[in-house]
Amino acid sequence: MESLLWRILGNRKPGRFRLGSFFLAGLPLLLSGTVHAEEAVPLPPLINFPVVCDTSKDCFIQHYFDYDPGPEALDHTCGILTYNGHQGIDIRVSSPQWMEKGFPVIAAAKGKVELTKDGVPDRAFSQDEIRLSRGLAPKPSNSVVINHGDGWRTHYGHMRQGSVIVKAGQEVSQGALLGLVGLSGSTSFPHLHFHLSYKGTNIDPFTGLEGKEGCEAAAEGRSYWSADANAKLGYKSGGVFKTGFSDHFPRYEELETGNVEINQYPPGTNEFYFWVNLWGIRKGDQEEFRVRLPDGDTYQKSDSIKISSVQGLRGFFYSRNIPLPTGVYHINYKLRRPGKQDTPDVIINIDDTMEILPQPSIFTRPPDE
After folding, report:
1. Ranges in the chain annotated CATH 2.70.70.10
2. pLDDT digits (tens, 9 = 90+) for 336-361
3. How far is Cα 248 from Cα 254, in angstroms, rounded to an integer?
């Protein structure tokens, strides 16, 4: 799940932009034990991706295992897509219609269902609840645990209330339906928390390691994913949840409801906000915002990301002391990431439009004779 760390808003000045952001990081969901170094560990079965979704548009991995042994957090690529102490994989469904569609959770490998839980309501934690819950034990979620033999298990958490259809003691085949992705327990976004374990110790299926070895060692690990799963699981270092316009800088909870978005502003409007909800933001990333007004004027602003964050909301504010011109406004947002080349790579490029409506005519047409 996620917690609000900080939010910055610049000074509001007419005719100027205001840049704001808040940053979100997760809380650990499950604890792990220890595997003794001298123990001969049998290989687990190759596992399939446990959610039926299109990883190019409907879902993605927001959090990986944490490989930093200290208070910081690094995933298995030494990237930032994790949080301190996280020992699992959070597969987030990004479709706004996730509840209506229903994304199936399936058995990653054949085995016997060992534990199930259902009946926990689907409800996103608010930012206040997240702050208050930091450091506390996570609340239970709708979940399934499957025993695959030889000490190996797979764990499925945050499932949808009323969707768990398997029972303890039931044999399941690889790909068997277990339930649906949900929003139960300690979380603020719909996802499946998934992990592999060996005799109580959580294991990263991307590397076969526990995470405490450090991210440099992860390159020497081996994947426990099947060939089909590996084909879906290319590492994505960042992306876009949602973009939109509003009449104020929105809170995170407002983005989930969709009620904050405005595509047409009323006549006389003299300010607007454009925001981009991103994941995988890195310190040093360069962002550019450009707006072209209906009267042909163009304004732009650039900034550099100061703090890396798994998720963050970036917002731009434009205002005048007099009503803004009516018509269509064209927005372009780019996020560049410095690399080996002299010119930073463009990893996000967004074009969007909104309209300020004209004043209604005060003249009426005379009735036809």
Report:
1. 31-232
2. 998 766 667 888 999 999 999 998 87
3. 11
pLDDT for 214 equals: 92
CATH class of 3-22+238-356: mainly beta
What are the start and end residues of each CATH 2.60.40.10 domain in the chain?
3-22+238-356
Q: What is the DSSP string of 175-226?
A: T-EEEEBB-BSS-SS-EEEEEEEETTEEE-TTTSS-STT-HHHHTT----B-
- What fold does the segment set 31-232 form as a domain? Glucose Permease (Domain IIA) (2.70.70)
Distance CA 189, CA 192 (A): 10
Pairing mode, strands 201-203 and 191-198: antiparallel
Task: Check residue 95 and give left, alpha or beta (phi > 0: left; psi -120 to 50: alpha).
Answer: beta
Nearest to 123 by CA among 90, 158, 172: 158
Q: Quickly list H helices, the chain.
A: 98-101, 127-133, 215-218, 227-232, 252-257
Give me the pLDDT at residue 105, please: 97
- Distances, alpha carbon 144 to alpha carbons 27, 57, 114, 116, in Å: 20, 26, 8, 4
Q: Catalogue the E-assigned strands of 297-364.
A: 298-304, 309-319, 327-337, 345-356
Q: Smallest Cα–Cα separation from 243: which of 174, 341, 331, 171?
A: 331
| Tokens representing residue 210 in the block | 């526990």
Which regions of the chain are under pLDDT 50?
1-37
Whole-Å CA distances, 136 to 3, 124, 237, 253:
13, 17, 29, 22
Distance in angstroms (rounded) separating the CA atoms of residues 180 and 144: 11
Per residue in 131-140, pLDDT (tens digit) is: 666 666 678 8
- pTM of the shown model: 0.78
Q: Which two tokens stand for residue 217?
A: 């060692």
Give the gyration radius of the chain's Cα atoms: 24
